């Protein structure tokens, strides 16, 4: 070959390689918004078929994307579900990851490469806005009057705006990055989960006459905004939140973060307070649902989802943003306040056809609404029945962002990106559910095994069937989705097989 021809070929080859690279570089990584709701049941969303309360904005998200019917949070309570979501590791593998008190230390070790930390490696800017409930601060717990660290910023988030624990736990203040928002130096905050910090201050227990919302169980300590909470606090008057403003404040913070992201792809973990207790909707939603405060905050949640869509539209980002909508655990009706939730339920079935609810080993504990939408990329109005776990979001989003997951990182998370994007209906090979008392259940295909447990059968306070029995339980969810008939006695082989598999998963 003549030198000139050879040079020409090399030049052409280089040119092609360059073009491919340029195209890959140009193909922008999608933004990712995870709308993580609180205590939303499978049947609380009208597109899931049983809700008497309309949720048009959430339904539109489903209409534009995919509605999953067999997707699960990893646990039936908040803290462990969130721990697993952000670490890709089942929470029951780590002690101390049950429902966290409001003054807990940060539960995720700072050495962990979390889901947002992993995305940062791919050039994402990351934020958490909303409920945290994974603890803050070092061994001594959070320093509410100083720098609150370590926290989200030390484990992979570039920005954080938090309800530090839950709406029903003190301190009732927002934390923005490392500081309590609007805190005045001359009115420091004191928090205790053991004893009253200001013995002269009224409490829900001692002064019920000044409450505007009464506890039904627990929640009878410090009073903030006319509502008694879990835990005692004093000080921080200028920083106290108004529950009615939660949704507005969180939407505002989300809007600000999204519209600042121009150069980089972003990940927003948008963690709503709705529909957790105390259910105090903004005045414009109060008394609007006809189902009492629980219905009203559901309307507010639906509005919130509509706002996220609006913000994306406004910023021209709808086509380049993957939106995932789901819940941290299943539904609960009376979760500690006399808010008429039970009396005004009417024909609304918050758990759909499933048994149990928040706290429970039965399906309604972890089977939650799960909607994925990405305009122009995922087909619209689809339903995906594959067994899917939120623990897989880590590895799936890593695949989407083109990040390698190292050995030992996110050990329980499997790359299920084709399922997430509805290119496949391949079910997860197995899935583990964790209940309040850490009773584990195993799902394989349509079989569900609940391990024997000494835990109580019923949470009397919330009137939830917990699914605990001293003997093994086995259900065929294809024929009996409501888990009414325990087949363990007649299917000893299946029970032994699933017990052994669960043991194996637990050990590895
Ligand atoms: C329980 C609370 C409940 C709720 C839950 C956490 C009592 C009696 N009950 O201990 O109201 O706050 O913890 O909910 O205090 S979660 O969704 O954050 O897991
Ligand atoms: Ca929850």
Structural account:
By secondary structure, this protein is α/β, with parallel strands linked by helices. Helix content is 23%, strand content 16%. The chain contains 9 helices and 22 strands. The model is unreliable at 1-26 (pLDDT under 50). The strands form 6 sheets. The chain has a 10-stranded mixed sheet with strand order 7-6-5-4-12-1-13-14-2-15, with helices on both faces. Strands 17-18-19-22 form a 4-stranded antiparallel sheet, with helices on one face. The chain has helices at residues 3-26, 56-64, 78-87, 115-121, 246-260, 292-314, 393-401, 417-420, 492-507; strands at residues 31-37, 66-68, 71-72, 125-131, 159-163, 175-176, 179-180, 190-192, 223-224, 227-228, 232-234, 266-271, 321-327, 370-373, 382-384, 388-389, 431-434, 440-444, 447-450, 458-459, 464-465, 473-476. It is globular, with a radius of gyration of 24 Å. The N and C termini lie far apart (59 Å). Strand 18 and strand 19 (447-450) form a beta hairpin. Helix 2 crosses helix 6 (292-314) and helix 5 (246-260) runs parallel beside helix 6 (292-314). Bound molecules: 2-acetamido-2-deoxy-6-O-sulfo-beta-D-galactopyranose (NG6) and calcium ion. 2-acetamido-2-deoxy-6-O-sulfo-beta-D-galactopyranose binds at residues 38-39, 77-78, 99, 133, 166, 168, 217-219, 230, 276-277, 329, 335-336.
């Amino acid at each position: 070959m003549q030198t000139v021809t050879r040079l020409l070929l090399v030049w052409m080859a280089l040119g092609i390689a360059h073009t491919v690279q340029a195209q890959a570089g140009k193909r922008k990584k999608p933004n990712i918004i995870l709308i993580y709701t609180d205590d939303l049941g499978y049947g609380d969303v009208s597109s899931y078929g049983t809700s008497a309360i309309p949720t048009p904005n959430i339904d539109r998200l489903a209409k534009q994307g995919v509605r999953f019917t067999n997707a699960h949070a990893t646990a039936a309570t908040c803290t462990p579900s969130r721990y697993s979501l952000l670490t890709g590791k089942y929470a029951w593998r780590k002690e101390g990851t049950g429902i966290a008190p409001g003054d807990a230390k940060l539960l995720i070790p700072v050495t962990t490469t979390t889901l947002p930390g992993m995305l940062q490696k791919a050039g994402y800017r990351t934020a958490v806005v909303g409920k945290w409930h994974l603890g803050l601060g070092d061994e001594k717990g959070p320093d509410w009057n100083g720098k609150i660290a370590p926290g989200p910023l030390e484990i992979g988030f570039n920005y954080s705006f938090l309800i530090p624990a839950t709406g029903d736990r003190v301190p009732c203040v927002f934390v923005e990055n490392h500081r309590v928002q609007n805190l005045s130096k001359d009115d420091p905050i004191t928090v205790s989960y053991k004893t009253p910090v200001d013995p002269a201050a009224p409490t829900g227990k001692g002064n019920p006459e000044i409450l505007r919302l009464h506890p039904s169980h627990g929640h009878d300590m410090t009073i903030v905004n006319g509502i008694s909470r879990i835990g005692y606090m004093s000080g921080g008057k200028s920083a106290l939140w108004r529950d009615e403003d939660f949704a507005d404040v969180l939407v505002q913070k989300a809007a600000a973060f999204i519209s600042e992201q121009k150069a980089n792809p972003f990940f927003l973990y948008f963690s709503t307070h709705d529909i957790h207790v105390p259910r105090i909707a903004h005045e414009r939603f109060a008394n609007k649902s006809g189902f009492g405060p629980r219905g009203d905050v559901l309307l507010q949640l639906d509005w919130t989802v509509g706002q996220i869509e609006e913000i994306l539209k406004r910023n021209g980002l709808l086509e380049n943003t993957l939106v995932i909508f789901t819940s941290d655990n299943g539904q609960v009706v009376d979760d500690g306040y006399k808010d008429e939730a039970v009396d005004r339920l009417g024909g609304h079935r918050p758990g759909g056809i499933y048994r149990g609810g928040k706290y429970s080993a039965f399906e309604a504990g972890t089977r939650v609404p799960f909607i994925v939408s990405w305009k122009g990329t995922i087909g619209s109005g689809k339903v995906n029945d594959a067994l899917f776990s939120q623990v897989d979001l880590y590895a799936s989003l890593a695949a989407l962002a083109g990040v390698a997951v190292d050995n030992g990182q996110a050990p329980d998370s499997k790359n299920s990106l084709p399922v997430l994007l509805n290119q496949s209906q391949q079910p997860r090979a197995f899935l583990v559910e964790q209940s309040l008392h850490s009773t584990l259940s195993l799902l394989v295909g349509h079989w569900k095994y609940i391990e024997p447990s000494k835990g109580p059968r019923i949470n009397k306070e919330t009137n939830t069937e917990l699914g605990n029995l001293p003997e093994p339980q086995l259900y065929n969810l294809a024929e009996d989705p409501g888990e009414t008939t325990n087949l363990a006695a007649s299917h000893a082989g299946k029970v032994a097989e699933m017990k052994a598999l669960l043991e194996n998963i637990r050990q590895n």
